[in-house]
Amino acid sequence: MVLGNLTAIVQSSVKRLLAYSAIAHAGYMLLGVLANTPSSRSALLFYVITYALTVLGAFGVVTVVEAATGGDAISNFAGLSRRAPDCRCACWCSCFRWPAFLRWQVHRKIFPVQRGGGGGRRTSRPALAVVLAIVMSAVSFYYYLQVLKQAWVLDAAENAPAIKVPPVTMVALVLLAVLVILLGCCPGLLLRHL
């Protein structure tokens, strides 16, 4: 988690940023392995599935931007929300991992808060791992916000062309965005089958 997130902060390439983010996500997933309970196993599967959907969407957006601009630098995403308005929802969902509380929900399932005496000693290490995961999640929000800032806040260069999204790619990105939003708002749709 630490290696992936701290290395991702200094990346100027969005592909590399996503790759180091994947290393961090492997650390989050290992929390489910560490807990090794039926609840943590279902939470881990839920996390893997939702992460796979968001990363597919993220790489889809990166592919569209790279094809149009010739590169995947964070600066190439400047003004994306205005240059490719059809891609807005997919960009938001993919880059920011909508909704932000998904990871917290998974951590809560993996290590539920235990009440009563005598349990503090037994759960101190898992609790520290979850606190570290939450701190590293805050770090990841920082570098994802850098991409979103380029896409939504900053303007592209005056001569930057509009970005055309191929229809098949657009359908795939919208479908992925809808699935991520649906599972984020209604996690029970998936969790009941895991």
Write up this protein.
Helix content is 73%, strand content 0%. With 194 residues, it is mainly alpha-helical. It starts with a helix and ends with a helix.
Order of H and E elements:
HHHHHHHHH
Poorly predicted sequence stretches spanning 5 or more consecutive residues: 114-121
Beta strand count: 0
Radius of gyration using CA atoms only? 18 Å
Give the strand content: under 5%
Residue-averaged pLDDT, rounded? 80
Number of helices: 9
Main sheet, how many strands, which sense, barrel? none
In short:
The chain is 73% helix and 0% strand. It has helices at residues 2-9, 14-35, 38-69, 80-83, 88-96, 102-110, 120-153, 167-185, 188-191.
Describe how the helices and strands are arranged:
Layout: H1 2-9, H2 14-35, H3 38-69, H4 80-83, H5 88-96, H6 102-110, H7 120-153, H8 167-185, H9 188-191
Give me some keywords for this one.
single chain; 194 residues; mainly alpha; 73% helix; 0% strand
